[in-house]
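Service request form, structural biology core

Requester: graduate student, group of Dr. S.
Request type: structure prediction, single chain
Budget code: on file
Notes: please return the result as structure tokens.

Sequence provided:
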Amino acid sequence: QVQLVESGGGLVQAGGSLRLSCAASGRTFSDYAMGWFRRAPGKEREFVAAISWSGGSTDYADSVKGRFTISRTKNTMSLQMNSLKPEDTAVYYCAAGGWGNHEREYDYWGQGTQVTVSS
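Core staff response, request fulfilled:
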């Protein structure tokens, strides 16, 4: 089992920045690829970014490329979000599991953290 806890969400104006963190405990964190997903109001949860178990490979949704950066250390994962837009407003979830950009690839999920971007 892996327990994941997100933090760092909040309210920010368009053009601003936020940094989300995901703290992991339980089984060896470094065994898993990690990802960020988000669910906007009235929409399905969607892929945001992923990072391999080694940190050597990353993947991003087209909508966040060039603005968001995913990274990881031994027991944490982060998502640096710059140039935020109102359409980035969502609940952001971190996940651990296999490599990929679909929910089915991930076995463990955090509870989510709210990000709200005002125009």
